[in-house]
Amino acid sequence: MARIIALDVGDVRIGVAVSDPTGTIAQPLEVYKRVGWGPDSRYVQELCSRYETDQVLLGLPLNMDGTRGFQVEKAMAFGQVLEKAGLTVFYQDERMTTVTAERVLIGGSVRREDRRQYVDKLAAAVILEQYLASR
Fold it and tell me: 37, 115, 127, 130 — which has fewest CB within 10 A?
């Protein structure tokens, strides 16, 4: 078993989570501010190197009816960039993960102003938890 790096890819930020070495537990890690495809890809490669894995899980932002929209195409295009860099990429439906993350933060009494710095990495952890549970 290897660790998995999970990404909640947005236009401005990427939420990052990582599994434990056994691939059982998801942990929110950080929020990366996007720069461009090249630097973003290198950032993910560095993360994978740091955590000794080549496995990356990308959230797929499907429409609520399950269809693919423009954001899905952007996520899959980024996945192709990561694959060309030698990483193994998996995809997971991410519908409602940000809502789930927001609810957790609200339940934890995190102030509205502070939620932005946590919600993306928590959403990545939710995506990873769902993926791990489905395996």
Answer: 37
pLDDT band of residue 26 (cuts 50, 70, 90) is: very high
**SS3 of 92, please?**
strand
Closest to 78 (Cα-Cα) out of 67, 69, 64, 89:
89
Cα separations in angstroms, 11 against 57, 81, 111, 120: 17, 16, 24, 12
Region class of 2: left (phi > 0), else alpha (psi between -120 and 50), else beta: beta
Give the C-alpha distances (Å, rounded to integers) separating 124 from 36, 53, 66, 84, 108.
20, 17, 19, 22, 18
The answer to whether the CB of 67 falls within 8 A of the CB of 79 is no
CA separation, residue 76 to residues 2, 56, 69, 73 (Å): 22, 12, 11, 5
Between 93 and 117, the more confident residue is 93
The answer to whether the CB of 2 falls within 8 A of the CB of 119 is: no
d(CA 87, CA 31): 20
- Using the 8-state DSSP alphabet, how is residue 9 labeled? E
**Single pTM value for the model:** 0.84
